[in-house]
Amino acid sequence: MRKRLGELLPVGYYHIVFTLPHRMFPVSLYNQALIYELLFKSASATLLEFGRDKRWLGGEVGFWGILHSWGQKLWQHIHGHFVIAGGAVGEDGRWIEPRYRGKFLFPVGALSKVYRGKFIEGLKKAYYAGDLIIPDEAAELRREEGFENWINALVSKDWVVYCKPPFGNAEAVVNYIGRYTQRVAISNGRIISTEEGEIRFSYKDYSKDRIAWREMALKAEEFIKRFLWHILPDGFHKIRYYGFLANGRAKAMVKKIAQGLSTEKARELRSEGYVPEEPEGLLCPVCRKGIMVAFLIVDRWGRKIRGDCVPDYWAPETG
Predict the structure, then answer these.
(1) What's the pLDDT tens digit per position in 52-93?
(2) At 39, phi and psi to the nearest 5?
(3) Where exactly are the structural domains of the chain?
């Protein structure tokens, strides 16, 4: 959370979710690493492509994604949560604002179609390369005709992609990350009882217009089986970073973008006739004569707002 906080820009951030249809089960269960990898690859490629499109931004976007594989009843519900900065870096290094700032970043209908196309292309490639494991429950897919019919059924449906409004502020982004990064399929707080070989737990029911908490009971064996579905393959990374927020680039890129945004803002203010003044020093509370000069200012999260280094005359022991 601290690292992500240090990479936040003074722009709006959008929350985009890419899902897979339930028809993917049980193939997805026997090909977890392949399917999860394909979701990340397809969703990230879609966002990068839309970012480069001049109809929307025309530059490089930056975002991170978090994988989730479960629903409230512990069934497979594979989806990825992506947090994307509202804007892009152009070829000239300048920041490009969204065309429809505050409303939406990209059209979700178009996102869904492109994402679906990329995922299906990758799935078919894996099948014909012999990399896709077909379980006995879906034995008909071992025949090419059966597989193509299954693919056609997948393509015939709209794949759910939705984009939430921008987060209210930087703290909201960090709180969101904190809630989602370390989650497992079910928390202890939702388990009501474990008696006589039965697990009773609570879940959110989204089937009605109004979300309601309900209870459900499963035999211990069924509960354990569903829980185990959501253990990630060995070595699989559930959080990934892309674009100008990719690992190894984020720190330098964020600093460069933030400086550019600050310069641009100052230029706008000057064009409006505003001339910023240097802040006056604070009167020393002890002698009431000397002027205190601020050389380092941090916010409540410890992020540096002003000041690059400690001056030579600074003595930690005396303050």
Answers:
(1) 999 999 999 999 999 999 999 999 999 999 999 999 999 999
(2) -65, -50
(3) 2-185+234-258, 186-228
